[in-house]
UniProtKB/TrEMBL annotation:
One of its GO terms (cellular component) is peroxisomal membrane. This is BA75_02157T0. The chain crosses the membrane at residues 73-95, 115-135, 315-335. The keyword Hydrolase does not apply. The gene is PXA2. CDD domains: ABCD_peroxisomal_ALDP. GO terms for biological process: fatty acid beta-oxidation; long-chain fatty acid import into peroxisome; peroxisome organization; very long-chain fatty acid catabolic process. InterPro entries: AAA+_ATPase (IPR003593), ABC1_TM_dom (IPR011527), ABC1_TM_sf (IPR036640), ABC_transporter-like_ATP-bd (IPR003439), ABC_transporter_sub-D (IPR050835), P-loop_NTPase (IPR027417). The keyword Coiled coil applies. It comes from the Eukaryota. The lineage of its organism: Eukaryota, Fungi, Dikarya, Ascomycota, Saccharomycotina.
């Protein structure tokens, strides 16, 4: 094509070509500014950024938005409001220009009319602004609600075997589930609710301003100038990218450090009594200090990077683009003033155009800066999504594995038997504690489990309770589920108590709603473990509250809210009760539940020996509960008929299982203890004898030396 024809074509389609090139250049700048800077590394972070493909990221965002029908509708409304606001901003920009022009030419009436119009437009503008704020918070709440529910349902699945959290805490992946469900989801929802206005508002502003600028430029020759401005924006954005930190990495690392600090702090709170008694504040302070120091150090590094980036950003967006824009708006005026005679009308026109275009340019450059800055939020959001997805995938895996393991290696019988057939005891970390465990007991066979510390006694319970899988070729047989009576009830050495009512503690893990137990029945349960004073204490506290509120006539509402029964009085039971009392209250739970089998893992170790015996007797003889117990006191042996013994020799653990006669075994045990003590006595006597022989010998030697020296003395004499 000849240059002449090309020029003609250009002239014919000049407007279209320039406008589209301008938009393309701006879009390029946005994409460049929004693209990742993969080469940059966060120095203090040793871990690599976890991988998350864009497809998976967008899929997650899509699923989160469409989890609820309300969210897309609200997002749609947000978009509509944003478009309306952008159009209103344009209108206000042109009004601004006209207002100043009328002010300069002292046209008061026109100025007043425009001012009224300006105020009238302010009404929908204010409404739209506050509606946008409201919508953003509302969308955040809905997203947070949906995500939290989704994760909590996977975290505490009602349909599973209630082992998810245990398995999660034993997995190497997740150490901070509480943070993931709380802080992480909150940050994710906040970021996601902000991202649309953050991206859409400035994008719309940029597009509308670009369109308006190229349309309302004082001289159509400035269209090329607008394109040059676009190119300036593009290249400076590329420069800005060099200073841009990797926000995803920063947000992940910062989150991890925050979580570490939180975990250490929770441990201190949890073990406050032990720390006070062992006077170990100094040590714990060091640990907390170190965790916080790491966090603060990283935050400082993060802020420094942000500060450098912000400085560059402000300089480029506000001043470089601003100056280029001002030049673009003013140049045509200077050029025209050289050729035309300046009259009032021209001054008016110049002022109006300059003010309007300047405002449009400032809005445009500011919006472009915001789009580039929203990359930070996009990358932060990516970090939060990664953490949430990692958590969710781990939960999905655990929950899926539960059903597989259960169906493969566990069988149910109606003969009320527990059968361990060649079951290896393997820890979650893969260490085999016992090669194979084989035995079988039925209802009424009370099993005593003994063995040295760390041999695997509690681990056996973990397999029975479904916490650890039944590893092939092992097979586990357990009784069929019974709607009336639970199969198993587990009592550990340190039972768990909630902050709640006394009734809730006794009927746990049943809910008090729909529970038909009466206060008298609850009181009887407490009597069995000699804990009736707990109910009396609650009664006194309740009476005290009633008296105080009655004396204070102004609080009838609070009086009405007080419980009717002392069993409904709320207290923090785990802080309030001694370990022995906690173990006794846990026994009340056992009596209330009356399961077929009770798994008692040193659950009476802090109870006095005579009460312990009474409690065992009641459970076995009165309630017909079959016990499987780990206990170190020989006084409890008489309640058992079978023995599972763990023995460790040369670091290899073996087990033996047989019927057990407690009297015979106790006799042998007593004999063994006697022999042991005699053996110890013998060894002591032998040592004493050795010592005496040695000291006699050394005295004899000393004496002979003395004699020799006497002789020598004599010789000298
Ligand atoms: N979740 C786990 N992950 C890895 N190893 C574990 C886990 N729980 C326990 N173990 C290990 O398994 C071994 C057996 O522990 P277990 O609690 O069964 O011992 P125990 O015989 O009950 O000891 P004790 O009499 O002291 O209570 C120990 O070496 C312990 O460190």
């Amino acid at each position: 094509m000849k240059p002449g024809r090309l020029l003609k074509h250009y002239r014919n389609h000049r407007d279209l070509i320039l406008r589209s090139s301008y938009v393309i250049v701006l879009a390029l700048s946005v994409v460049e500014g929004g693209g990742g800077n993969g080469k940059k590394k966060v120095k203090s972070s040793s871990a690599a950024t976890p991988k998350l493909s864009w497809k998976k990221y967008l899929q997650f965002i899509k699923e989160t938005i469409f989890m609820d029908r309300k969210t897309p509708i609200l997002l749609g409304s947000q978009v509509l409001l944003l478009i309306t606001r952008a159009v209103i901003s344009l209108k206000i920009a042109s009004l601004d220009g006209k207002l100043v022009a009328n002010l300069v030419s002292s046209k008061f009436n026109k100025f007043l009319k425009l001012l009224v119009l300006w105020m009238v437009i302010g009404i929908p503008a204010s409404f739209i602004n506050s509606s946008l704020n409201f919508l953003q918070h509302y969308i955040k709440l809905i997203i947070r609600n949906n995500l939290t529910n989704k994760l909590i349902n996977k975290y505490l699945p009602v349909s599973g075997d209630n082992t998810t959290i245990y398995k999660l805490m034993n997995s190497a992946q997740i150490h901070d589930p509480n943070q993931r469900v709380t802080t992480n989801i909150e940050q994710l929802s906040d970021s996601l609710a902000k991202i649309f206005p953050q991206l859409l508002k400035p994008s719309l502003d940029v597009l509308l301003c670009a369109y308006q600028l190229s349309k309302t430029a004082p001289n159509s020759n400035t269209a090329e100038g607008v394109l040059i401005l676009g190119l300036v924006v593009h290249f400076t954005t590329l420069l800005l990218k060099k200073f841009q930190p990797n926000f995803t990495r920063l947000s992940i690392k910062s989150n991890d450090l925050e979580n570490n600090f939180h975990i250490y702090h929770s441990k201190v709170i949890e073990n406050n009594e032990q720390l006070a008694l062992s006077k170990s504040y100094n040590l714990e302070l060091n640990v907390l200090d170190k965790a916080f120091f790491e966090l603060a150090l990283f935050k400082r590094l993060e802020f420094r990077r942000f500060a450098v980036y912000d400085t560059m950003m402000t300089f480029i967006v506000k001043y470089t683009w601003g100056a280029a824009g001002l030049l673009l708006c003013s140049l045509p005026i200077f050029v025209q003033s050289q050729f035309k005679e300046i009259n009032d009308h021209l001054i008016n026109e110049f002022t109006s155009s300059f003010i309007t275009n300047r405002r449009l340019l400032l809005t445009g450059s500011d919006s472009l800066g915001k789009i580039i800055q929203s990359k930070k939020n996009l990358q932060n959001l990516r970090g939060y999504v990664m953490k949430t997805l990692e958590f969710e995938e781990e939960l999905n895996e655990i929950n899926a594995s539960q059903t597989v393991v259960k169906s493969e290696n566990i069988t149910y019988n109606d003969t009320e038997e527990i059968i361990f057939d060649n079951v290896p005891l393997v820890t979650p970390s893969g260490q085999t504690l016992v090669q194979n465990l084989s035995f079988h007991i039925k209802k009424g066979d009370h099993l005593l489990i003994i063995g040295p510390n760390g041999a695997g006694k509690s681990s056996f319970f973990r397999i029975l309770g479904g916490l650890w899988p039944v590893v092939p070729p092992g097979k586990l047989g357990i009784p069929n589920e019974d709607p009336v009576r639970k199969n198993f009830f587990y009592l550990p050495q340190k039972p768990y108590f909630t902050i709640g009512t006394l009734k809730e503690q006794i009927v746990y893990p049943d809910s008090v709603e729909g529970c038909e137990v009466t206060d008298d029945e609850l009181y009887k349960l407490l009597e069995l473990t000699k804990l009736e004073y707990l109910a009396t204490d609650c009664e006194e506290l309740l009476q005290h509250d009633i008296d105080t509120l009655t004396a204070d006539h102004g609080k009838p509402d609070e009086l009405r809210q007080l419980p009717m029964s002392p069993f409904d009085y709320v207290r923090n039971w785990s802080d309030l009760l001694s370990i022995g009392e906690q173990q006794r209250l846990a026994l009340c739970r056992l009596y209330y539940q009356r399961p077929k089998f009770a798994i008692l893992d040193e659950c009476t170790s802090s109870i006095s020996a005579d009460l312990e015996q009474d409690c065992y007797k009641y459970a076995i003889e009165e309630l017909g509960i079959t016990v499987l117990s780990v206990c170190h006191r020989t006084t409890l042996w008489r309640f058992h008929s079978h023995l599972l013994q763990f023995k460790v020799r040369d670091n290899i653990t073996t087990t033996s299982f047989h019927k057990f006669s407690p009297e015979e075994r106790l006799l042998k045990h007593e004999e063994l203890v006697l022999l042991d003590s005699k053996l110890a006595e013998k060894q002591e006597l032998e040592q004493r004898l050795k010592f005496l022989e040695q000291s006699t010998k050394s005295r004899a030697r000393n004496r002979s030396i003395l004699y020799i020296s006497d002789d020598e003395d004599e010789e000298i004499d």
